[in-house]
Design goal:
Oligomer: single chain
Helix content: 25-40%
Structural class: alpha/beta
Largest sheet: 7 strands, mixed
Shape: globular
Distance between the termini: 36 Å
Amino acid sequence: MSTVDTSCPICQAPLAGVGAEQAELHVNGCLDVAVLEDKKKQKRATIAQPPAAPISSAPRANTHGAGLTAEQMLMEIEQTAMDFAAEQAGGEPVYAEQPAASGGQSNGRPLPAHKRMPHTTFTVDAFKYGELDFCTGYFLTHFHSDHYGGLTKTFRGHIYCSRITARCVVSKLGVDARLVHALPMHTRCVVHGVFVTLIDANHCPGAAILVFEVPRGHDMVRIVHTGDFRANRQHVEQISRVLNADKRRPLLPDAVLGENAGGASPRIDYVYLDTTYLKPKYAFPQQDAVVRAVAEFCGRVDGDPSFLPGWTQARYAGSGSAAPAKITRWFRPTAAVGARRRRRTLFVVGSYTIGKERLFVEIARHLGARIYVAPAKRRMLECLGSPALLSMLAADMADAQVHVVEMSKLNVRGMAEYLQSAPGRFSGVVAFRPTGWSHAGSHYAKPEPDEEPEPLDLAPVEQALRRGDREHAAGLLARAARMAGDSAFDAGQLRARGTAGAVAVFPVPYSEHSSFAELARFVCALEAAHVVPTVSAGSAGADAAGARWLQHWQRVQRHLSKINI
C-alpha cells in the first residue's frame, strides 16, 4: 500500500506514513467542512450549537408525566440528544465546526497528563488550566462543577459536548453559544480529522463517554474516556460497535444502540477510567433496585399513617434503645383533627446541579404527586428538553409532595428548617440523601477492609481448560477479579441516620458512579493497553493500591480473552 509523506493541507495534522486511503479520508473530512460551510450553515446552527434562549417551561396541563415511568422519561431526555440522526440528509457523516486553536495562554497551572488526549490537540474536562495554545477542542463530559470548573462566560476556547450539556453551559454559565458545539449522541462525528462518538454514560442527563479514533499510520489510535459513568454491559457492547464499524460509512444511533453483541472488543490504546469507587468496600446495589425500594417505601409511608412509626420502632427494638417519641407519634390522628383530611408527608430528595432525576421522578410517579424545585433547578431541568418531566413540576411548594433540594441541606437541622418554611400542609419530612458514599462505613453493611489483589493463580484455570470446562475457568478468573461484589437492596434495609421531631433523613446507596465490581467487569471486558485513572484516591498509597487493581484486571482480561467464552 502506498503511503504519503506530508501533512493535511486543511488542519495541518501530520500524515507521514499514513496509507493513501486513510490520508484521503482524513483530508476529505476536513475539506467537507469548508466546502459545505455555507450550504450547511443553518443546519449547523440548529445542530452543533445550543439555542441561546431557554426551552419553554410551560408544562402540559395536568398530565403528570403522561404516564411515563422514570426510565422512559430519562429515555425521552436522551432522545433530544439523538434526534440529530433524523436530521441527516442522505446519511451524511457529521462534521463539527473546526476552528483554530484558542490562542490563549495557560493560567500557569500545570495540565495533568490525563487531561490531554494522546495524539490529539484535545483536552477533556480541563477548564481549570486556562486557554491552552495547543488546544483546538475542549471536550466536556457532563455538567458537574468538578468537571466544568474554571469555565466562565469569558472563556474563548471551543467546547465540544452533548446537546444537553451544551444547553446547560450556555444557560447556567453564560458561555457564548457560538463557542459551544453540541455533538449528537451515539453518532460518529469528525472533529479536526478525528472520529469522535459520544455514548450515554448512565451518570446524569447529558453525561457522555467519549470514544476517540485518531488516524495514525495504517491504523487508528483508539481512546475511550468514560468521564463519570455507571458502567454496564451495554457500554462494552456500544464501544465495541463504534470501534468495529466501517470508518467509510456513517455511524448513527440505530447502529450504536443495536441489538447485536457488538463483536469482540478491538484493542484500545487508552481507557481513561472514572475510579471514584476503586476500593473493594464499595459494593453498593444496582440503581434500579434502590429506586424501586425507595419509591415503594414512600408509597407505604404515604398510604398508612401507622407504617412509619411501627417501622421505626421495629428497627430500634433490635438496638435496645427506644425510638424517638415524636417520630412514633407522627401520623396518629388526634381528636383535634376530627374529620379533616390528614396532612401529607413531604418527601425530599437531595440533588446536585444536575443528577438524581431517576430517583425523584420515580417517587413522584409512584405517589401520583408533583415535584417542586427551586427556580434555579427548574431552569436546569428545562435544559433537558423533556416535556414529560416539565409537566410534573409545580410552581407552588404546597402543590407538590416531592421536593428536590441541594444535597448540602440534607441533614436533620436543614430539613427541620425547610419544613418550617413550607406551607402548613405537611405533617413531617422524610428526606433521602442519595449517594454511593452512603454505602461506605457500617450504616447499611460492614464492608470488608480494603484489600490488595491476590496473585493470580492460574493452575486451577488451566486444569479446568484441560477438562474442557471453559465456563468454570472463566468463573475462576471472574472471582479473582472480584466481579461479583454488588449487594442486594430492598426497602427493609432503609435506616434513618438522623431523626428529630417530625423529620427523618435516610441515606440511600444510590450511586451514579460505578461500583468496584462494575469497574472490574468493565475493565475485564475491554482489551486495553493502558488504563488511566481519572480520580485520585486521596493519597499516594491509595492511588498505588488502585493502580494494582487496574493492573490485576488487565491480567485477568488477557486470560479471559484466550478462553473466548
